[in-house]
Amino acid sequence: MEQSIKRIDASFSVTGQIDPADLSVLAEQGFRTVICNRPDHEGGPQQPDHTAVQQAAQALGLSFAYLPVLTTGATPQQAEQLRQLLNELPKPVLAYCRTGNRSSKLYEAATQPPRELKQYDVVVVGGGSAGISVTASLLKRNAALRIAVIEPNSEHYYQPAWTLVGGGAYDVKNTVRPTAEVMPKAAVWIKASLSAFAPQRKVVLLCDGTELGYQQLIVCPGLQLAWENIEGLEETLGKNGVTSNYRHDLAPYTWELVRNLRGGKALFTQPGMPIKCAGAPQKAMYLSCDHWRKHGVLDSIAVEFNLAGAVLFGVPTFVPPLMKYVEAYKAQLAFQSNLVKVDGPNKTAWFDVTTADGQVNRVEKSFDLLHVVPPQQAPDVIRRSELADKAGWFETDPATLQHPRYPEIFALGDVCNTPNAKTAAAARKQVVVVADNLMALRSNAPLPKRYDGYGSCPLTVEKGKVILAEFGYGGKLLPTFPLDPTVARQSAWLLKATLLPWFYWQGMLKGREWFTDCKPD
């Protein structure tokens, strides 16, 4: 072996990269387990793949484990994984990475004395719409519950109004409040980021190493906007005519671009599903077109809506009334056209377009205004967790919102793998299901509530009119009011622009469960 072995203690040693040929020497030296902490392909083609080392180790009767650690350092979750491996695998152990340094630090993290465990009745992961609302609803049911809410952000946003901000119909300052202001006073706010789950121990780990124990866990951190998945986008957002209503600081720039555009080409995009508020990408287009039409410049602007999918809207009932607006605004629809690259200074965007026979072609398009909706995914901490499904979303029973393998864990909001629209309205109904079911679980009673997939998408087709699309699982229409839901109405605009924001701050975040089939506050 070219690398020297550093002994940490009697049971654990570290070294740099090893080759399969080194295993016989290691076996002769008495090691019984080898752990690889170096990610495959980190050092190029000359680095042995961990599977080659594993095969050589097992051929000699040695145990082997692959626990790759990035150069940025080990996470608390990886320290927990090593702790479990050390309890299970025969000793002595030899761990290796490029130099042995990462293996040494990982062992130190795994064996340091654990911090005092903070115990709560309920831990809520996420202090967004779902997290604050379900916490308030639980405390209304039992004010004595000890609830901790994990939320790193100091500001709380009412995101549904950002589309209105981008259309010049709402003040962006009214979409944000301090998190401290909306956090239920009886809850403990843990201003930190979640690092990992340890569901076997009923514990979550924070980035600073703190562990929180729970009797029940509610997971609702929202989703993650993957701006970085579109080449060149992050460098040009907020300038060069490139904007998005999916970010608080960019929605006002959308309105600036819209009101200043007098001619040229306007591109609007929608990535593959699922995304939060599936109607928001086209709402940006409708409000922009309505402004241009009212100011007599729409005929000078070529409007194009690029959708990664094959349909305008997922619930067929609403497609015909939406198409009337698409045609009235003379917008072109480009289906199965997915934005993959942006060059802001040169006002150029590239789309991967899938043809009917499945061929994918890269198409270049120029623009004067580009409204981007980024790809969206579950947060990293969810995707790398055993609690996620194969696609990375949090695994959830679609009716009870309970995890199928850990009954003490519930989830709601955008992170769930349930096939409903990811909207604040969906979270509003899910809050009651989770709150009632969790309280029943604490009493060893049957879970009383079932979620029907309800979601609402107020489609702002013009300034002053909205098509109020309300539906559940399978596209079943679930209208709140006895009116034709396919008709654009001024009353629905009033609901969207005035009543719902007030209700959000004064009702939903305070545990008032109006129009949720529950006893009102």
Automatic annotation (TrEMBL):
UniProt keyword annotations, A-Z: FAD, Flavoprotein, Oxidoreductase, Quinone, Transit peptide
Sample GO molecular function, one term: sulfide:quinone oxidoreductase activity
Record domain Beta-lactamase hydrolase-like protein phosphatase-like: where: 7-108
Transmembrane helix among keywords: no
Pfam families linked to this entry: BLH_phosphatase, Pyr_redox_2
SUPFAM superfamilies to which the protein is assigned, alphabetical: (Phosphotyrosine protein) phosphatases II, FAD/NAD(P)-binding domain
Keyword Secreted part of the UniProt annotation: no
UniProt cofactor(s): FAD
Residue ranges occupied by any FAD/NAD(P)-binding domain in the UniProt entry: 120-240
GO biological process terms held by the UniProt record: sulfide oxidation, using sulfide:quinone oxidoreductase
Protein name, per record: TIGR01244 family phosphatase
